[in-house]
Amino acid sequence: MKRRILSSLMALVLVFGLLPATAFAEEDAAPAAAKTIYVDATTGNDTQEGVGTTAEKAYRSIGEAVKAAESGDTIQLGEGNYTLYKVSSEGHTKGKDLTFVGQGVDKTGWNIGALVPDPANFGTEYNGDYSFDGAGTVTFQNMTLRSGSADYLGFIRANNTVVENCTINGKTFYWGYESAEFKNTTFNCPSGDYAIWTYSSPTMTFENCTFNSSGKVINVYTDFGAGKNDITVNFKDCTVVNNGASLKPVLNINDYNMGNYKYILNISGNNSVSGVSADGITCSRLFGFGGKPANNSGRSVVTIENTKVWENGVRVGSHAQDIAGGSYINGKADGDDNKYTDGYKDNAFTTVEGEWTTNQDGIKTRTITKTCDYCGYEEKTTEIDWNVPKSKTATRLDKKTWTSDVTLSLFDGTATVVLPDMPGNQTSGVAYTVGAGSTVTDTIGEKFTFGGVDSFTLKVGTKEIKGVKDDSDENTVNFGEKKDDGKYPYTVTYTPDTKTFVWTINEVLNGRESVQLTYTVKLTKPETAPGTYGVEDLKGEKVLTDTEAANALYTNESAVLNAKAENNVTIVAQNFPKPSVSYTVHSFVPATTYYYFAVEKVDAQDDHALSGARFGLYLDGKQIAAATSDRSGLVLFCVSESDYRKISANSSLYYQELTAPEGYLVNGDESALERTI
User: Fold this and answer.
1) Are 622 and 653 in contact (CB under 8 A)?
2) Full-prediction pTM beyond 0.90?
3) Any domain includes 52
């Protein structure tokens, strides 16, 4: 019995002994509340009571401040220059997440490494800053970070680094060994050198950053991390301004030593680049290999707005691949802005047109060779001289609203056009088509304003297709249901500055039914002087004289069809007819005022009305009006305003029967009248 009791007591002791230990462990795990520690290199005092708790009681030494800091604390820096260079991370920054906040890029500075790099040690880690060795996440805000121009500079062996609302002067290699983020930061590159290498960070992000360079910007290269892991670079909403000779693309890649790993470059948002030349390999200013084929070993993947454009050392998609979303401005105003390559964006091509040849069906064809001036890419297309059935009409000008409805039509739904037998084309006997990607560019007439995108209507055959404004652009209207590729069958985008819209056709038109786009224009300043203005030519069919053409009210300046066909065949650009309208302003004729006198003709016996009796109205013996009684016996004299104004109190105004109704005698009495008004 005693053994059992003792065993039970021991068990109880063990149970109760465990409970406090568990409770204590939970209490120890609770993190301390983050705090702000103040440092002022000019007025601070490390020995004062309550040091670091307020701006007035700031530390003088940044080293003492970080020693007192706990993970998660913010260190508020006053004006002046700071550094932890050659301060051991042990007991200071190791194992801590710390945020350093300055007073602004013009007031607070931080030296990364030595104040003045020693040129005798260039190419080594002589100046590498180990002050954050083993730190967690280190964040810098609102200050200028200074480095030198030698290689291998930076913060060595910090886990993560964040730089926000800062300026970085000089070149750096080392940042967070897990990640490095740069937000709203300006990089001032050393003369003719890079601002930064992707050296130690598996993931490096640049967002809303500005790079001021003179030849080079970002070097996508490492020997430290080569063959160890993929290296991801995110580049979003950045601006690059290069002054001087352009030596490298913005993201200059050298992937030869990556082994089984790759550089993954994700470009997105609205980026602006000026003063940088297009890379001879990628044909892009944004990324490339510095024109060195040896640096392009197939270990890089590049996406722009989630569209893959480069992989395995070659371009993915065509030289003219469309990029949906974001924007990339390269300092030039022409070209196809949504294209991947700068060759297309700048329209930098040397074009050679072959000779026209006439096939057995009488249709002419030729070969067009376009060679990119940047990368040497060669593109051959077959061009067909085929007049696509089309028309453009306008309605008569509505003089109440001064508007006309204009309609662009492709095909009429009746004709079948047969494709000739040409190399690279479909077999003969197939109905020819207008392919997806074809466009119509229309510029509103000089003397008209556009009725707005709400006036656009579209019909396919007899069916009207509903248009909806694009969510991201109030000047774009989409028609039809969105397709799997994210495009709508028809899209119209208006540019107010140029009074031009582009109608993009994203599906094949086979000619079996008409496709019509209608919109409204309004005459800007109608004339008021009498006369006829313009020439009415609602179908644009008339041959106008020079004088007529000069005075014509054309509803549009031009409308051009740039049609694509299948199998890399294009159709010669074609102009639509130019309808014109006219209107007439009539001369103004003042209205004439008339006055009326009324009498009644009735039977003398029973007073019934008599018709057909004719009377004269006399003023001072002169007949001034005549009238005949109607079926109600009413006799209505109409007197002109001039005669009426001659009637005075002394005038003799009377009427007299001239002819009587059938069966009655004429009553020749003079009956007086009075002017009552």
Assistant:
1) no
2) no
3) yes
